[in-house]
Write a structure and sequence with these properties.
Helix content: 40-55%
Shape: elongated
CATH architecture of the largest domain: 3-Layer(aba) Sandwich
Structural class: alpha/beta
Number of domains: 2
Strand order of the largest sheet: 3-2-1-4-5-6-7
Number of helices: 14
Strand content: 15-25%
Radius of gyration: 22 Å
Largest sheet: 7 strands, parallel
Number of strands: 13
CATH topology of the largest domain: Rossmann fold
Order of helices and strands: EHEEHEHEHHEHEHEHEHEHEHEEHHH
CATH superfamily of the largest domain: Glycogen Phosphorylase B
């Protein structure tokens, strides 16, 4: 198959999954064309079957913002026309699926008798819970869902939310996020502990894009409770709008010497491999890919019982699930686990075992079958 993938190229779960999916598909012989403003951050390997098309929006003085969505639609239409793409897979309803839908209209207008690509849309969360919740955008999101040839959601939680909010005519399939356990596995690097100044204490890690939904302030408060009870260091990986406030908070609390702000790092396996526990106190997560990747590296997770976390984290086995905002319980659970080496080791092993249930090939098989089903349906509709 010839498959187009439209996605965000920046740090985040949707871009990571889109890139991992594209690379896996290319390794199976499919030809994959990526559409994004820059190369997806996880797209690190070269392949004869992978092509990246940078989307450059025109700037015009009359308008305050560039025409990214239109530029994306034009680029998808251009490549789909010359490369004869079978499927365009849009990761996020807005703007990617909307742009792909417009690209298809461009091609149908250009040559009505020629067949066009099938549109698959994957909902990742923000496109529903944030963009879709905006009254000014709700109808656009509903249109994209109903006009896509096939729609998937990364968790049952997200599917349920989409159905509740939009009552879509389109059936939504759940295909969860996945992890490559051949790459995401614990690989101890003793020298890294020295480079990070970790000493002999426990290491706690948080990875995100530092948006408000990630509750960075709760990460800081939980860690303050941990470090008051035992020797520990916190690794903050990522960047975003809440980082500056977090830096101020750790200085104010007197724990700055125990916290490392590492910024955006693409290769996170070495950092996970020196970590003992992940903190993910998000208000809600449509899935929580960073937590699954941590589990694959033998790192249990203290997270919230919100969104997609309960679909792969079993409370009391792979970590602990607490109510959003319940800093006291999160702190107690974290200290309890970090203070018990035998239990921590058992949780780490169970986490690795659970991650293998979300192995990349298993979910890529499902996406391949999903594409083929869309193509078969398309053939039946042609005159």
């Amino acid at each position: 198959m010839k498959i187009g993938i439209s996605c965000h190229h920046t740090y985040g779960g949707s871009g990571a999954i889109a890139a991992e999916l594209g690379m896996a598909l290319a390794s199976r012989g499919h030809v994959v064309h990526f559409f994004s403003q820059g190369a997806p951050f996880r797209l690190g390997a070269f392949s004869a079957n992978i092509f990246h098309h940078e989307v450059e929006a025109m700037h015009y003085p009359l308008f305050d913002c560039p025409f990214h969505s239109l530029a994306l639609a034009s680029k998808i239409a251009e490549v789909a026309w010359y490369e004869k793409l079978d499927v365009v897979h849009a990761h996020y309803a807005i703007p990617h699926a909307m742009s792909a839908m417009l690209a298809r209209q461009m091609l149908e207008d250009k040559c009505p008798e020629r067949g066009c690509f099938r549109l698959a849309t994957t909902l990742h969360g923000t496109d529903i819970t944030v963009v879709g919740a905006d009254p000014g955008m709700a109808d656009a999101v509903r249109l994209v869902i109903n006009r896509s040839d096939g729609v998937t959601a990364v968790s049952q939680y997200l599917k349920d939310e989409t159905v509740r909010m939009f009552s879509p005519r389109q059936e939504i399939a759940v295909i969860p996020n996945f992890v490559d356990t051949s790459r995401f596995r614990r690989s101890p690097q003793p020298e890294l502990r020295g480079e990070l100044g970790l000493g002999n204490g426990r290491t706690v890690i948080h990875i995100s894009n530092f948006r408000p939904v990630k509750c960075i302030g709760d990460v800081v408060r939980v860690f303050e409770g941990i470090v008051r009870r035992l020797d520990a260091t916190l690794l903050f990986v990522g960047d975003g709008p809440e980082r500056s406030e977090a830096e101020t908070a750790v200085r104010r609390l007197g724990i700055a010497g125990r916290v490392r702000f590492l910024g955006r790092i693409d290769e996170i396996v070495p950092l996970l491999s020196v970590s003992d526990l992940m903190l993910m106190p998000s208000n809600v997560e449509s899935f929580g890919l960073a937590a699954l990747e941590a589990m694959a590296c033998g790192v249990p997770v203290v997270a919230t019982d919100a969104g997609g976390f309960p679909e792969f984290i079993e409370n009391g086995r792979h970590g602990f699930l607490c109510r959003p905002g319940d800093v006291e319980t999160m702190t107690r659970r974290a200290v309890e686990l970090l203070s018990d080496p035998v239990r921590l080791e058992a949780f780490a092993g169970a986490s690795e075992e659970q991650a293998r249930r979300f192995e990349t090939p298993l979910q890529v098989d499902r996406y391949e079958a999903f594409y083929r089903e869309l193509l078969e349906e398309g053939k039946k509709k042609r005159p």
